[in-house]
Design brief:
With 185 residues, the chain is an alpha+beta fold. The protein has a single domain, classed as Cyclic Phosphodiesterase, Chain: A. 26% of the residues lie in helices and 34% in strands. It is built from four helices and nine strands, in the order βαββαββαβαβββ. The longest helix has 17 residues. The structure holds adenosine-2'-monophosphate. The site of adenosine-2'-monophosphate has 5 residues, from strand 3.
Length: 185
């Protein structure tokens, strides 16, 4: 199954951002991510063999236990090469990165291939099929400052890719498991 580790912002934080995103023009060629699935990716595992999932869960449970709860807030926006528009992350991002490193290491130790990209905390809002000028969107979201919240858990999320073949249909995300961070007990 296709899995990734993530931090899931609470509903009220998603709603605050949603209000701002609703005011943006839809834009041609932009695929907006589904609001119920908004997340901060920590590590992407791709297709994980069924027999590897128990070990991955165990290692993620340990990674969560070793990491203290920490505070974050969504703030501002940015883009990756005109291909992805995202909301920015503010607050204890060093702790977020540490959690991402641990989540990635959990996958690697299970033998899952992990591309080690430089970790850039972000919440993807839209993707563009071709390089697009996303500057107006980034500018419009510049003043966005969401309420801070305390990250208390590490989630394992299952991504169900669309099977209908309908263009533009989005993957469905489903929380498969979650573990309390060490300091959150
Ligand atoms: P993104 O927010 O930067 O796009 C589920 O697909 C999540 O895993 C996405 O939010 C995506 O992060 C992240 N991800 C990282 N590497 C990926 C890859 N190679 N393929 C698909 N998703 C990936």
């Amino acid at each position: 199954m296709r899995l990734f580790a993530a931090v899931l912002p609470p509903a009220e934080v998603v709603d605050e951002l949603g209000v701002r995103v609703d005011r943006l023009p839809p834009g041609e060629g932009l695929r907006w991510t589904g609001r119920p699935g908004w997340h901060l990716t920590l590590a992407f595992y791709g297709d994980v063999p069924e027999e590897t999932v128990p070990e991955l869960r165990e290692r993620l449970a340990r990674a969560a236990a070793r990491t203290e709860a920490f505070e974050l807030a969504l703030r501002g926006s940015g883009q990756f090469g005109g291909r992805a528009l995202w909301a920015g992350v503010h607050g204890r991002t060093a702790e977020l990165k540490l959690l991402a490193d641990r989540a990635e290491a959990a996958g690697r130790k299970c033998g899952l291939p992990g591309e080690h990209r430089r970790y850039r905390p972000h919440l993807t809002l839209a993707r563009a099929r071709t390089a697009t000028d996303l500057t107006p969107y980034v500018t419009a979201l510049d003043t966005f400052a969401g309420s801070p919240w305390t990250v208390t858990e590490l989630a394992l999320v299952r991504s169900n890719l669309p099977v209908s073949g309908v263009p533009g249909e989005r993957p469905r995300y489903e929380k498969a498991d979650a573990w309390a961070l060490g300091g959150a007990r």
